[in-house]
Write a structure and sequence with these properties.
Blueprint lengths: L17 H9 L4 E6 L7 E5 H15 L10 E5 L4 H13 L3 E5 L5 H11 L3 E5 L3 H13 L5 E6 L11 E4 L9
Parallel strand pairs: 3-4, 3-5, 5-6
Antiparallel strand pairs: 1-2, 6-7
Helix pairs in contact: 1-2, 2-3, 4-5
Length: 178
């Protein structure tokens, strides 16, 4: 379904979050994304432009509350999820003024270390399932004097686009027994 109102194409809007905000204002109830329903095997569900925009604001607030910290900080993302959630995370990070650096979950720990050093990235946002990998990366980089912060996404689903989005710092020392 094509939005009723289309944004200007002559460069007056930033791509992200400009287009997101434009559609939230001018096409709030139109679907941004359509996907298979979680409750009906033959049905579909959708996320509206307004819900998407609100989700990007929640992500931005959690990634960089009150825009504290460095503008244009590079933040590594390693997550295994669907495109709807991944795009929401990327757009929210851009809204927050950070530079997302998405890496595949298949990226080796050695490559992750090299990417982080080359881009001066000192933060990783990831999922709990990757905790053992990043615990090792954090320890090895720390031994080299390159400290990193790891934040774990808890839990994130398409319904989180409509409600809460949580990013918490990981405390690997507390969870060493897991």
């Amino acid at each position: 379904m094509i939005p009723k109102n289309l944004p200007p194409v002559y460069g007056s809007l930033s791509v992200v979050p400009g287009f997101v905000d434009f559609h939230a204002q001018h096409n709030p109830d139109r679907p941004w994304a359509i996907f298979p329903s979680d409750t009906s095997p033959s049905g579909t569900s959708s996320i509206s432009f307004q819900e998407f925009a609100h989700a990007t604001h929640r992500v931005a607030h959690h990634v960089r509350p009150e825009r504290q910290g460095n503008e244009l900080e590079v933040v590594v993302i390693v997550a295994h999820t669907d495109a709807v959630l991944y795009v929401s995370l990327l757009a929210g990070m851009m809204r927050a003024g950070v530079i997302p650096f998405p890496l595949s979950p298949k990226t080796s720990p050695e490559a992750i270390k090299q990417f982080m050093k080359k881009t001066s990235a000192h933060r990783i946002i990831t999922q709990d399932v990757f905790r053992p990998v990043f615990k090792k990366v954090q320890r090895q980089l720390g031994e080299e004097g390159f400290n990193i912060d790891i934040e774990i996404l808890y839990p994130w689903t398409r319904s989180s686009l409509r409600s809460t989005w949580e990013v918490k710092p990981a405390s690997f020392e507390e969870d060493a027994t897991q």
